[in-house]
Write a structure and sequence with these properties.
The complex is a heterodimer of chains A (about 725) and B (about 100). Chain A is built from 33 helices and twelve strands. In chain A, helix 8 packs across helix 10 and helix 22 crosses helix 30. By secondary structure, chain B is an alpha+beta fold. Chain B contains three helices and six strands. Chain B has a six-stranded antiparallel sheet. The two termini of chain B are about 20 Å apart. The chains are: A alpha/beta (about 725), B alpha+beta (about 100). At the A-B interface, helix 3, helix 13, helix 14, helix 18 and strand 12 of A face helix 1, helix 2, strand 5 and helix 3 of B. Strand 12 of chain A pairs antiparallel with strand 5 of chain B.
């Protein structure tokens, strides 16, 4: 190995194999996160130096196989085909060997210079699995290194072996054994291999291409289309169709099933000779837990209890931390304002204090709540419980035309819709994925909480309704909140059914999911997973929301009041200052009232105020005046902006100090019924701009994002109107 | 070493699905009880479904054990791992008691 040469190391593996811990152990956690070109699948790369060789480590998406079944699989496969890494390390969960080795056989077929990391080898031993790695390595023709990712065990040896493979990748591929496909299939593979274009033969991929042709792999055929003329491809496909029919008639199953079966056969054969275990002992412990956790009797109550605990934890601890951050934000805004000369009408001061610090600060103050929810979700996921949740809720999800797996992204959506939408990738069927994505904003995200709290605080003062064992007191506000969240879920159910009955009609996608054994989550693993999701939120807050906040600030600042109008306020101030004893309470109150009135007038005069006024007639049936309408528009980039904007519009200023007076103003200006309508509208309406961007990206078309805005807004309008109109009738 | 096609066909009873003596009849997985070990014969579903199952280790001729069958999906044990199979899928999976 020549020093100074850069070696590309690709990390592959099944979703539960502990790939990210190995990645972190190799790179020391220093990573660059980007996207694979053209798709939003995250691409993590990191660097490491070992024995003078510089390694570029690329973390491929976690997949069960390399058939072009999902975007992740296509990406992993194309990376190996196009970028030809010097070594591919397949991270194998040694406690679930057969399933995990399936990916490895596909890598071998692909001719990748493979190295196997038998990860979680401590777990395998604890479960009574004796793996003769040397023998297995000989049988497969692939080097094997045992690792324990979270303890860093075997990482040195792994890098050592990686360098050895990278020294001569071609030789490494040549040493690999290949599965025998049986006497009906093998000759067909050889025949087809001779017919593929010469280019494939030069790269040693003729056999792989032949296998893919037998499997009728659409992605591989598409790739062939780029290197050979259409008529030759036509001929090749016809040549592949004949053996496909032959295999089907002789073996009774289609070629791809037979091929999968033979790969598994190859793996079992090798494992039988090198692994000693009583297979069942591995799952005995998990099965005992599952006897309770997934039982018809206890499964559901246990799940509901756990969810209540998760939300209690998030809201109580998160609410407190959010309050602290809010206070810090106020302090910072005041400090920055203080840097400018008093009374100076500085645009820069306004941009910094009222635009950037206020806007971004509000968003950042949700970070604790979002991170705490993601922390809880990570614990549930890493322990293996989340897969059980999908099992437990499946029959309810079926009623709305989705299946249990859709619940996981929806749960994440209670923190923030953006990572929730990204999490829909775990769904196999595109229809399921789109449906889940479209209804996801109905899971009330934590940004909407301040709106509810403001309105509830204004119209439904907190009082205890009942207490549980005299310890936990349940307030009317808590019950309101529960009702709001449940309403969101109910509307989501109706919307999902509607979608499945119309534009996304079709059968619910097949639900197959691996149920991993329970395990103790590691602190590091939980933190990494929490950070990965939370980071998505932070990144959006730092880019989209920052930009939107600045635009919004401009829209609320210009055009300024005309000179005459402004002078009138000045005159009022001067008059008040001269008439009232300086420094008195009365003087202060009067001055503040004048400033507030000015603020209100300025906002009404601004672009956003004018838009609000123009649109208001449309919103009148929901019981909204122009101020509410304007605040709703202002809340487009991020829902939490609604509260701040309403504060400004009601001339009490924005921020924490304004909350109490704002509640009083709201009580004076609106009825409780209007308050409820605001809550419902905010719950259902207009997802924030980052959510729309995520839907656009993930669905691959702006049309779905447009449908999401239009559908949700229409529903919000209908619901708020119905509540307001019927409520008005009942009240009078 | 993998069994070849003819052998496997005999094991799964592919050639005589009507059921001859000594070969228990085919039944949907829904008929299997908890703890019962059955032989996976075939899945009636699209190209995607059968293939997905095969990749998760459920290939024809494989023995699976029903671990849990509540009102919702099933949990089965295949190749030492646990798979959750949706209700709709369980109806379309045909097995033979071992």
């Amino acid at each position: 190995m020549a020093d100074g040469r850069q070696i590309t190391v690709a990390l592959a593996g099944n979703p539960n194999s502990g790939k990210s811990t190995i990645f972190n152990a190799i790179t020391g956690g220093r990573q660059h996160v980007g996207n694979y070109p053209g798709v939003t699948v995250e691409k993590k790369t990191g660097r490491a130096v070992h024995n003078g060789a510089e390694l570029r480590v690329v973390d491929l998406p976690g997949t069960y196989s390399l058939t072009a079944y999902s975007i992740e699989e296509v990406i992993a496969r194309n990376f190996i085909l196009d970028e030809k890494p010097d070594v591919v390390i397949d991270i194998v969960d040694s406690s679930n060997l057969e399933r995990n080795l399936y990916l490895a056989t596909q890598m071998m077929e692909l001719g990748a210079p493979l190295l196997l990391a038998f990860n979680k080898s401590d777990l395998a031993e604890a479960r009574g699995l004796e793996i003769d790695a040397e023998k297995l390595s000989r049988l497969l023709g692939v080097p094997i290194v045992r690792t324990v990712g979270h303890k860093g065990v075997g990482i040195r040896e792994l890098l050592e072996a990686a360098l050895a493979v990278a020294a001569d990748p071609a030789a490494a591929s040549d040493r690999q054994s290949l599965p025998h496909y049986g006497r009906e299939v093998d000759p067909e593979v050889s025949k087809l291999a001779e017919m593929v274009p010469r280019k494939c033969r030069q790269t040693g991929r003729d056999r792989w291409v032949a296998v893919k042709l037998l499997e009728n792999d659409a992605e591989a055929i598409k790739r062939l289309g780029t290197i050979m003329p259409p008529e030759e491809l036509e001929e090749l496909l016809a040549a592949a169709a004949r053996p496909r029919r032959h295999i089907q008639s002789v073996c009774g199953d289609s070629a791809e099933i037979i091929l999968a079966d033979r790969r598994y056969g190859f793996i079992s054969g090798a494992c039988q000779e090198s692994v000693r275990s009583s297979v069942e002992t591995r799952h005995a412990f998990s099965d005992r837990i599952d006897a309770v956790v997934t039982s018809g009797l206890f499964g559901l109550p246990l799940f509901v209890l756990l969810m209540l605990l998760v939300f209690q934890f998030t809201f109580s601890l998160g609410g407190w931390l959010t309050g602290q951050l809010d206070a810090a934000k106020e302090l910072l805004a005041a400090e920055v304002s203080g840097l400018f000369p008093a009374g100076a009408d500085s645009t820069l001061r306004s941009l910094l204090a009222e635009g950037i610090i206020e806007g971004v600060g509000t968003v950042v103050s949700f970070v604790p709540m979002i991170f705490l929810l993601f922390l809880a979700i990570s614990v549930l996921e890493d322990s293996g419980y989340m897969a059980r949740v999908a099992f437990i809720v499946d029959r309810f999800m079926h009623k709305i035309g989705l299946h249990g797996k859709s619940f996981i992204p929806m749960l994440i959506g209670f923190g923030c819709s953006v990572p929730g939408i990204l999490a829909t990738r775990i769904l196999d069927s595109r229809r399921d994925r789109l449906t889940t994505m479209l209804i996801l904003p109905l899971m009330s995200c934590s940004a909407r909480l301040p709106i509810y709290l403001l309105i509830l605080g204004a119209f439904f003062p907190r009082r205890a309704v009942f207490s549980v064992f005299g310890v936990v007191e349940v307030s009317n506000q808590a019950l309101w909140l529960l009702g709001i969240y449940l309403t969101g879920i109910l509307v989501a159910g109706v919307a999902a059914r509607l979608l499945r009955g119309t534009i996304l009609r079709g059968e619910t996608g097949s639900f197959v999911m691996e149920l991993p054994p329970y395990r103790m989550p590691t602190v590091r693993g939980v933190l990494v997973h929490t950070w990965e999701r939370g980071w998505m939120f932070l990144r959006k807050a730092g880019t989209v929301i920052l930009a939107a906040v600045i635009i919004l600030w401009a829209l609320t600042t210009w055009p300024k009041l005309d000179e005459e109008h402004a002078r009138r306020f000045e005159a009022q101030r001067v008059a008040a200052e001269s008439q009232l004893p300086p420094g008195s309470v009365q003087a202060e109150q009067t001055l503040r009232a004048i400033d507030a009135a000015r603020c209100e007038a300025e906002l009404e005069h601004s672009v956003i105020g004018r838009i609000g006024r123009t649109i208001q007639p449309v919103m009148a049936p929901c019981g909204f005046d122009w101020k509410i309408t304007t605040a709703l528009i202002a809340a487009l980039p991020a829902k939490e902006v609604f509260v701040a904007q309403l504060g400004v519009l009601h001339a009490v200023g924005a921020g924490r100090r304004a909350e109490k007076p704002l509640a009083a103003r709201l009580r004076a200006a609106y009825s409780p019924l209007q308050g409820i309508c605001i809550i419902f509208f905010c719950l259902v309406s207009l997802p924030c701009i980052p959510t729309l961007a995520a839907t656009w990206q993930e669905s691959g078309s702006w049309k779905w994002a447009l449908l999401q805005v239009a559908g949700l807004t229409a529903m919000a309008w209908l619901i708020a109107t119905a509540v307001y109109q019927i409520g008005s009738l009942l009240v009078t | 070493m993998p069994a070849d096609g003819a052998e496997k066909a005999a094991r799964t009873g592919m050639s005589s699905e009507k059921g001859d003596p000594g070969n228990p009849p085919l039944m949907p997985l829904t008929m299997a009880a908890v703890g019962q070990r059955v032989l996976f014969v075939r899945a009636e579903g699209g190209y995607g479904l059968t293939r997905r199952l095969a990749e998760m280790g459920l290939t024809p001729g494989e023995v699976l054990e029903v671990i849990n069958c509540g009102r919702g999906p099933y949990i089965v044990s295949v190749r030492g791992g646990r798979l959750v199979l949706g209700r709709g899928m369980v109806h379309r999976i045909f097995v033979r008691p071992v």
